[in-house]
Every structure is written in C-alpha cells, then in structure tokens.
Write a structure and sequence with these properties.
single chain; about 220 residues; mainly beta; 8-stranded antiparallel sheet; 3 helices; 8 strands; about 60% strand
C-alpha cells in the first residue's frame, strides 16, 4: 500500500588540470602541473517506512491509527495513515583531490654508450572525503534498511619525492634513433602521509635491455 521503494542516485564530478612544460637548452627539461577533482553523490530512497511509526501502528488498538495486515484481499488501510508512516532516507558523500607535481631531468655527462641522465620528482596531494545521511537512518529508524552510522569526515596530505638516474652501458647500433641496447637504472622514492605513516626510503635497481628495436626487457 505504500508503493514500491524508489532509489534515485545522483552523481556529480568534475576535474581540471593545468601544466607547464619547457626545455632549457638541449640537456635540461622540466614540467609542472596542478590538478583538482571532486566527486559527490547522494542516494535518496522514497516510499520507505519509519520503523518506530510502523511498529506503533501495528501495536495500536485504535482503529483510526492501527495498520491491519490481516484485513484480506479487498481490505485497504486508510491512505492518510499509510502516508503518515512513510519516510525518505538519503545517504551521500563527497571526495576531492588536489595535486601538484613537478619534475626535471638533465644529462649529467656523456659516455661512449650515450648520455647519463638524472631526473628529480616532487608531488604533493591533499585528499579529503566525507559522508553523511539523514538522522532517521543514523538512528536505525528505516524499516529494513539497517543503521548507517554517524557522519564521517577525513583528510590527509601526502608528500612524495623521488630521484632516478639512467646510465647506458651498450650503445644502440649506428644510425638507430632509439634507446641504448643496455642501460642501468637506479631510483629511490620517499613518501610521507600526514597523521598516518612514512613509507621510508624505497630504492629500486634494474637493467633495461633492447636487443632489437621492437623488444624491450626490464
């Protein structure tokens, strides 16, 4: 008699990105960028029933305020009474991310196999998230839906730095405009999460081989 429950989910998101990239001379390149994105949603359920009001109507001995689930096929409760038991529940949340990063790379010197190149990287991220719901849902007063819990809100900042150096060991064949046949890469990354944890110093080492133009092995 209350009609089917209907759920409407609305989501809105947008993002923006801006950056600069340049080359200083033949050996030094750099770029920097800033981006922002936000996603927000709300899920609204109509024709839900209040637990407290429905239980009170089932227990009522007053015919004008009582719901009768055993009235038979031709029986219907007072539409005004059914309407008074209805409730609208909603749950929503939003998250946004603000990021800035910059990197620069240059050739340190040149060997017989090619230039030795170093790169530096920096990144800062601000992450935020929040969720909320209607008071009745938080109190568990939506029949058959359970309890959503209190509103939540959290945020953190993340700072990361990294460095990488690549040194060629075996040059490409004469006339090939491609990477060296064999090179070594050494990199390290450090990341710090506010109010959370510290990644520690994370080094990586590797060899990059290109035996032929279209095959790369790391």
């Amino acid at each position: 008699e209350a009609g089917p429950r209907r759920s409407l989910v609305e989501d809105e998101n947008y993002s923006a990105l801006a950056g600069l990239r340049s080359r200083l001379g033949s050996a030094l390149t750099w770029e920097a960028a800033a981006s922002y994105s936000r996603d927000a949603f709300v899920d609204t359920t109509g024709n839900a029933l209040s637990t407290k009001r429905t239980l009170a109507a089932l227990a009522s001995s007053n015919p004008s305020t009582a719901v009768n689930p055993f009235g038979g096929e031709s029986f219907s409760d007072d539409p005004a009474l059914v309407e008074s038991l209805k409730a609208k529940s909603w749950f929503g949340g939003a998250a946004d991310l603000l990021t800035f990063d910059a990197q620069a790379a240059r050739d340190l010197f040149t060997t017989a196999a090619g230039p030795v190149r170093v790169a530096l990287y920096f990144e800062h991220r601000r992450e935020r998230f929040g969720s909320n719901s209607d008071p009745a849902s938080q109190a568990g007063d939506m029949l058959g839906q359970g309890q959503t819990g209190a509103d939540a809100k959290s945020a953190r900042n993340v700072v990361a730095t990294a460095a990488e150096i690549r040194a060629p060991l075996i040059a490409a064949a004469t006339g090939e405009r491609t990477q060296p046949r064999l090179s070594v890469e050494i990199a390290a990354r450090l990341e710090d999460f506010s109010n959370s944890f510290h990644s520690g110093f994370r080094p990586t080492f590797g060899l990059v081989a290109r035996p032929v133009r279209d095959l790369l092995v790391r």
